[in-house]
Amino acid sequence: MTPEALIDIFREALAVIVLMVAVIIVPGLIVGLIVAVFQAATSINEQTLSFLPRLLVTLLALMMAGHWLVRTMMDFFLEMVNLIPSVIG
């Protein structure tokens, strides 16, 4: 196996990881920003006001995208298993 092929595998793995994490994190970041603007506008400094909506949106994102996340991880894993013969020999 050439170093270029190994780098391609590593790049694809990083792309899958970044995509999967972004699906979970980005909705929470957007809601956190909206809540922060609301807190700044109203001068409310309650910690739970910013934590609870982000938690709920993150859980909702996991529920909605869970099937896609598992399918994406399984596809990547099967692709890596199929590449084992070319990596070894």
From TrEMBL:
UniProt similarity note: Belongs to the FliQ/MopD/SpaQ family.
Q: Where in the cell is it found?
A: Cell membrane; Bacterial flagellum basal body
Record lineage: Bacteria, Pseudomonadati, Pseudomonadota, Gammaproteobacteria, Alteromonadales
What PANTHER family does UniProt report for this protein, alphabetically? FLAGELLAR BIOSYNTHETIC PROTEIN FLIQ
Could you list the residue ranges that cross the membrane? 12-39, 51-70
List the protein's name. Answer: Flagellar biosynthetic protein FliQ
Which organism encodes this protein?
Shewanella litorisediminis
| RNA-binding recorded as keyword | no
Give the record's membrane topology.
Multi-pass membrane protein
